[in-house]
Amino acid sequence: MSTHKRYFVNNLPDYGGGDVIPDKGEIKRQTVALVQTIRHKWHRHRQNCDGGLYVGLVGAAYMFYRLSKMPEFAEERDRFLEQAMEYLEPALEEASYTKGHGKKVDVVAFLLGNAGVYAVAAVIFKALGNIKESEKYVSEFKHLAATITPVNWFSRGGDEFLVGRSGYLAGALWLHSELNQDVLGESAVSAILDAMVESGQQYAHHHRSRIPLMYQYYGTEYLGAAHGLAGILHMMLSFPLWLSSRPHAKELIRKSLDALLALQTPGGNFPCAMDEIDGQRPPEDELVHWCHGAPGTVYLLAKAYMVYEDKRYLEACIKCGEITWLKGLLKKGPGICHGVAGSGYVFLTLYRLTGDAFHLHRAIQFFRFIYSSEFKQARTPDSPYSLYEGLAGTACFISDLMNPEQSSFPFFRVF
Ligand SMILES: [Zn+2]
Question: Which of 11, 129, 134, 238 is 20 to 30 A from residue 282's alpha carbon, by CA?
């Protein structure tokens, strides 16, 4: 039977007490090895730019930038930034082609389109001291806000994370933190968030949804981080000024959050979409991924705990950790979207939330598993070197273990 499971059975030793200290030397060596594999295998030409930050070359540019900021890689900083540029250049060429010839959604999408490329370009040029180019790409990013502000700008679902408003706002938050500059400004951000609330209310009303804010993506009412409610609510909770000025929205968000919370299974997972609620998937077939399920919903719950200070959200987070420990050694590969590194980030998030070494231990166990002989039987993802499916994201997870207090899932900040 075990051959049909989506995950390897977890036989890893659980936390046995005491301090947990990551072996920085080992982690650094493994990170460097991943970087070398990416450098040797992932060719830097335009055909590999499709899929933006999610599976395109710009994801490697992001990874190199991220590593360049780590104190453990201080000596490699300049080289990493140069290498970031090598991956960024073809992505910028492709983005400029898309801008002239592509569909609107491919231009404004953050994870899958140009918005993400512009944000990464703005940040890397700034790190290289090229302020003029940095400002040019900040401005390219900013201009996209006007396209996504109308409530129904994209009829297939314009609120989720990969192509919609949530991803764009995550990009704006990231730019803010990296450039130390509020690139969109309060009124543009508020207009986007207001549109997200309006869009969710309209949809819920027309479809008599049991959740006051509900959304669809290509006709499916997804609930998870990538295309669904969890990613959308997470972003809404990430703008405290807007939230405090919109008590009605704050209440709707909380009600929607609680309706989602009520769908958590006894095991701790969340269904993939509303159409699974009644005819639920059998537990052995449930998806426990960042994109669908508890490993992506945990970020919303952690954020909700910080905003509303309600212990129920913390308890739900801990349950997400339990299902991830049990079913998170995914056979789909080492990536962060639906792979072992994405599961590992759940434990890093719980560690930051609680300070409990128990979770750090689990994160390190998942890191070790990636190098086990058993994991060699895992599938090779379609985009094996990419940020969300492949090794670039794995490198982000592994290197974050050196400073777990600062760890964060790419573009999905909680703290
Ligand atoms: Zn996924």
Answer: 11
Closest CA to 129 of 81, 93, 96: 81
State the distance from the centre of ligand 1 to the C-alpha of 245, rounded, in angstroms. Answer: 34
| Residue 175 in this model has a pLDDT that exceeds 80 | yes
Nearest to 124 by CA among 175, 90, 76: 175
Distance between Cα 391 and ligand 1 center (Å):
14
Compute and round to an integer the Cα radius of gyration of the chain: 20
HEC string for 388-406? CCCHHHHHHHHHHCCCHHH
- Report which DSSP code applies to 273: B
| pLDDT of the residue at 215 | 98
- The rounded distance, in Å, linking the Cα atoms of 78 and 376 is 34
Residue 396 among known ligand-binding residues: no
Flag whether 337 is marked binding. Answer: yes
pTM: 0.97
pLDDT score at 370: 98
- CA atoms within a 13 Å half-sphere pointing along the CA-CB vector of 275: 8
Which residue type is seen at 53? L
